[in-house]
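Q: Hi! First time doing this. I have a protein sequence and I read that you can turn it into a structure. Is that right? Here it is:
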Amino acid sequence: MKFITSKAQDGSEVNIHYQDLGSGRPVVLIHGWPLDHQMWDYQVAALTDAGYRCITYDRRGFGKSDKPLAGYDYDTLADDLKAVIDELGIENAVLVGFSMGGGEVVKYFSRHGGKGVSKAVLISSIAPFMLQTDDNPDGVPQEKIDEIAAGIQADRAGFLGGFGKQFYGVGLLNKPVSNEILTNDLVVAMQATLKSTLGCAKAFSSTDLRGDISSINVPTLVIHGDEDQTVPIKATGEQAAAMIPGSKYIVYQGEPHGLFITSKDQLNADLIAL
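A: Yes, that's right. Below is the predicted 3D structure, encoded as structure tokens:
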């Protein structure tokens, strides 16, 4: 297994597990919560076949990366991303963030100037601000955020099992993914710790990135499903597209949050076309 050591400003070190496959123009893909780098399996297969080099990694606290007690804020997570980009000497990259990973994309630009990145993609992203406030009325109410934390603390496996169904838009009459996918996702999610699961949930649900998103100064593609019940499109995808100059905005009609599987062929084609 391959690891990169990320050194935080407080002097602590965390080993970040990564995968580097293919050759050609680099694409760095940042996974969503509560999964790990394996969520990009379909995209990595398609992109490497199309001649791209794909770098994926496990966010600290998840997958095979170290699982410290702290460091689950976006500043630290963006620094982990910088460590990956620096260590691998990545240049002219496409930086792709899904859901929570969209926050790392935004913070990487505001904190590190987007070094080594020439294009960005936000998919089902939480940016710029997911929480409902007086000036962000289309966000998620605080009580819903509190329910996430309470559910994780009460029965993490039980909560995440139910969350997976919402993630993919599974209902009584709608089964866009198999039970096996849901089971596998739960197994992956449980590789994380309670601390990392809670810490990252707090970060993606409450971090206001509206002051950071204007720092994105490269061509950017924003993709969001209009049936996303996890990250509301009006507060996130729609606002991100409006706030990033010259961005391209694609709405996937009828698609839920986890469109990297439910609409994998369309997503793969849109990424390859970059």
